[in-house]
Amino acid sequence: MTTRNLPALGILLVAVALSAGCGSDDDGSPNAATPTVSSEAAPTGLPTPQTSPSADAATPPSAAAQGTTERRPASPPPVVLPKRPTSAPGAKQVIDAFRAAGLEVPHPKDRSVDCGPDGLGLGCSELMATDAVTVYVFPDETSASDIAETWGGQSYQRGAVVLNYLEAKTPAADRPRYEKVLNGLR
Question: If you ran DSSP here, which 8-state letter would residue 81 be given?
Fold first, then answer.
């Protein structure tokens, strides 16, 4: 290579560096009209142009979102169940009366949370489930009556309290004993 080619080669290198993405508006696709310089043609001692990935390719798309804190909606307010009528016994009181009468009430569980919209959504005030019977206490007799009718022959209603035998293992012959104890409360 001769020294008179050096200025032309320097200008060519600057043009290649500028067209390689340093502020250019092109889309980065190769263009046949753009001159290229091979490493054989570059004089020793002069830096060869290095193309680096564009800033857009190196930055993940969520980088702008990383600087902000994600806002989550406030947790929903706690479910407030309707109060049972003062004239009706509580579900636990009914279970205790069954136990005192010698009736089976295995594995009692307070499932009152199932009364609300996140559970069964029945609108009951209290709910105690056992393997023998499930006791529902409703805020009024009308609601209790509506549910008892829905469950047909698998339930018993007295006032605002409904005994449900749908998932129970209690024989049909023993059910009148539970109902008699419920009738004797208040």
Answer: P
